[in-house]
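Researcher: Let's do a round of design. I'm pasting the structure tokens now; please hold your answer until I've finished.
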């Protein structure tokens, strides 16, 4: 469970970073990459 909790905290950090990028409206490529990585994580959890 420790690994799972670590992954969840990691996803939370990524989502927070993604929100910051949307606020500054910078790094659109990074925004798309993080969206892709987030969808990959959801797929892994399924």
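Researcher: That's everything. Go ahead.
Model: Designed sequence:
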């Amino acid at each position: 469970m420790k690994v799972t909790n670590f992954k969840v905290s990691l996803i939370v950090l990524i989502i927070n970073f993604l929100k910051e990028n949307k606020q500054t409206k910078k790094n659109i490529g990074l925004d798309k990459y993080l969206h892709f990585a987030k969808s990959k994580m959801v797929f892994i959890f399924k």
